[in-house]
Amino acid sequence: MEDDNPRRAPMGLTMSSPLFKGSDLQSFLRDPPPRPIIAGTTSLEFDAGSENVDGLIYIAEFLGITNQDEILERYHKDELSGNIPFNHTIDTQQTFTSTYVIGHQMRKAGGKVYLYSYRNPRRPYHTMDLSFIMGIHLFEYDENDKVLSVIYPQFFIDFIKTTQPHKDWTPLQAELDNYMYIDVNVKNHSMPHMENYYEHDVINYWKNLVELDKRLSGQTQKAAAQRAIYTTSMTTSILDLLVAILLLTAIVVAVLMTVATIRQWNQRRQNRYVIYRGEKTPLLF
């Protein structure tokens, strides 16, 4: 959590037993306990800040992307060509994707996950909602904020008491990516309500990159398998050629030895004849 006094603000995620078992967040999420959680983000998170390119590496690592160079190159190409379907900073994308992954990992472990998105357009950035639940980042409330200041903290109070923030708040489901849309508009009577497909554009974009990463890994494995087959084939062909050469050499040697033997036999036979003049038949000794 942040504090108005920067000297008192802790940096990073604090993890310790018994709530967290694991050396880091990734190891914890590999086998988390089936624990109910409430998790969410603000609509614009870090969009007011400067771009943090290094955050792409964090997203790639957190999502388990192995072909990072190729995937990040694809991201930059999409960025230059205007093919990224949203206008969020990398830090905001990092916050959305990590919240999404954490939510679904806890859901898979058997815990009930209450996902939310704080959509107050008047205060849409990171931690600005803490004014309602922690009393920091204070600002002057308008008529909408006054209503929200009653409803929003009650979600957390009820969750702490009952592990359910509200009777109409449905736990996260795999196919729906459902979440509580949190905002109040007194004029059109809009109140917090359930919606589906949490941060759909960002989540789907990175899901597609994860699928691309899997295809690239598959192509790499296929190429490696083909190289192995080619190497094996070449080795077999070379061995076959060597065997053929050896057989041919053996045949040639055998033929030459046979010819030499025949010549020697004929020579010895000729030497055993004595030819006398006037005789028609040689005398054999």
Q: Got a strand count?
A: 6
Task: Give the % helix.
Answer: 40-55%
Main sheet: strands, sense, barrel: 4 strands, mixed
Query: Which ranges are low-confidence, i.e. pLDDT below 50, for 5 or more consecutive residues?
Result: 273-285
Give the strand order of the largest sheet, numbering strands 1, 2, ... along the chain: 1-2-3-4
Count every helix, treating DSSP H or I runs of 4 or more residues as helices: 7
Radius of gyration: 40 Å
C-alpha termini separation:
122 Å
Output the helix-strand order: HEHHHEHHEEHEE
Principal-axes geometry comes out as: elongated
Strand content: 5-15%
Structural class: alpha/beta
Q: Determine the mean pLDDT.
A: 84
Detailed description of the structure:
The protein is α/β, with parallel strands linked by helices. Helices cover 50% and strands 8% of the residues. The strands form 2 sheets. A 4-stranded mixed sheet has the order 1-2-3-4, with helices on both faces. The chain has a two-stranded antiparallel ribbon with strand order 5-6. Strand 5 and strand 6 form a beta hairpin. Helix 2 packs parallel to helix 4 and helix 3 packs across helix 7. It is elongated, with a radius of gyration of 40 Å. It starts with 24 loop residues before the first helix and ends with a strand. It holds the Pfam family COesterase. Keywords: Membrane, Transmembrane, Transmembrane helix. Residues 89-201 form the Carboxylesterase type B domain.
